[in-house]
Amino acid sequence: xxxxxxxxxxxxxxxxxxxxxxxxxxxxxxxxxxxxxxxxxxxxxxxxxxxxxxxxxxxxxxxxxxxxxxxxxxxxxxxxxxxxxxxxxxxxxxxxxxxxxxxxxxxxxxxxxxxxxxxxxxxxxxxxxxxxxxxxxxxxxxxxxxxxx
Amino acid sequence: xxxxxxxxxxxxxxxxxxxxxxxxxxxxxxxxxxxxxxxxxxxxxxxxxxxxxxxxxxxxxxxxxxxxxxxxxxxxxxxxxxxxxxxxxxxxxxxxxxxxxxxxxxxxxxxxxxxxxxxxxxxxx
Lengths: 149, 125
Known about the structure:
heterodimer, A: mainly alpha, 3 helical TM bundles of succinate and fumarate reductases, 0% strand, elongated, B: mainly alpha
């Protein structure tokens, strides 16, 4: 077992040729900016869905439909969807880059990751924009109160 | 890069373990997010399909899982704010160890608030 030497953290960081803006720098900045926004978005989401009222016990179609008739919650959830998946996808990309040393598994894993992120963002966005709180022919007992007019 | 030959321990202590916990919690949250978008997408299938699947979230096993999920999210959020302070605050690197224990303390306080509330919801008190 060979011991690896770790440079003293107080020595000056040796700069690479990369200066100014580049994609990894943008990725680093995005993680911090989206992270701050997600703290508010996710805690707001958890507070309304898990803390208030009867918490998770009251979540059903009518509850979601009641929220999504308001553009406020549509925008909230849309932002959370996009920021959460890009932030999470970028984090997993970093993990894959760190642990998948050989290029074939690394490329395959990243292709699967990007496919999962894109499919989930597209699906979630379509669901939010095409959602119908009062679907025709549905059991009226399962629908939000606004459908009984 | 750490490997079995050179040993997988970096510097240890708060700096390294917070990084390990940040990775693990982040990975768990990402996997849950994929599933959560899929289950929510069932609102486009039918009210019955959505209610059937979301009903599982109300089971005791899932209720305990939600405590784990909220614990992971809370740690990831608080430690993420610590990382931002380390990167952007002039005192951040010097105080990173103290900041880690602030994260742990806040996590304990917030979980002490959430867990009884969640148990109340789960058992209908």
